[in-house]
Amino acid sequence: MEYFLCKVKLSRVQDNGKDKMVTEQYLFDAMSFTETEARVTEHVAPSIDGDFIITSISRYKISELLLDAPGDRYYRAKVDFIYIDDKGEEKRTPEHMLAIAYTLGEAKKIVDDALESSNLDYEVVKIEETPILEVVLKE
To answer: Considering Cα of 57, then 128, then 64, then 95, what sign does the dihedral take?
Structure first.
């Protein structure tokens, strides 16, 4: 299974009552670009009035989703797993995780909690808020 980041341009009613063209980002799990496009259309069309344009679909590298906590923002964490190779040199293998949380601090705690049971050494190199509006998974 792969993850695909989809950018959709559509019209949304703003707080002042006027329509404005906005670009929203969604993350889907799918087997292909074609499946992703069909799922985006199926997911977005019922919730809007009018047309929309899928402006891009790209692969999104994530090794683990941490979506069990409450939150309203998605944070992407880069984690380096650290090990010593046969020559005694330190090596790092980067992985990316996506967590839902209300704040950056909460996201860091969620990532640390998910990794604490690991018997590998790791370092959380970076956590940043993403523009992802929703993660849409197959049921």
So the answer is: positive
Residue tagged 């969620």 (tokens) = 110
CA separation for the pair 113, 47 (Å, rounded): 35
Residue for token digits 């409450």? Answer: 70
Sequence-ordered list of residues with C-beta below 8 angstroms from that of 93, at least 6 positions apart, any chain: 80, 81, 83
Distance of alpha carbon 56 from its chain centroid, rounded?
15
Shortest CA distance to 66 belongs to which of 56, 74, 57, 54? 74
Contact 82, 125 (CB under 8 A): no
How many angstroms separate the CA atoms of 113 and 116, rounded?
Answer: 5
Pairing of strands 90-101, 121-129: unpaired
pLDDT of residue 19: 86
The model's confidence at residue 118, banded by pLDDT at 50, 70 and 90, is: confident
64 closest CA partner among 15, 26, 16, 29: 29
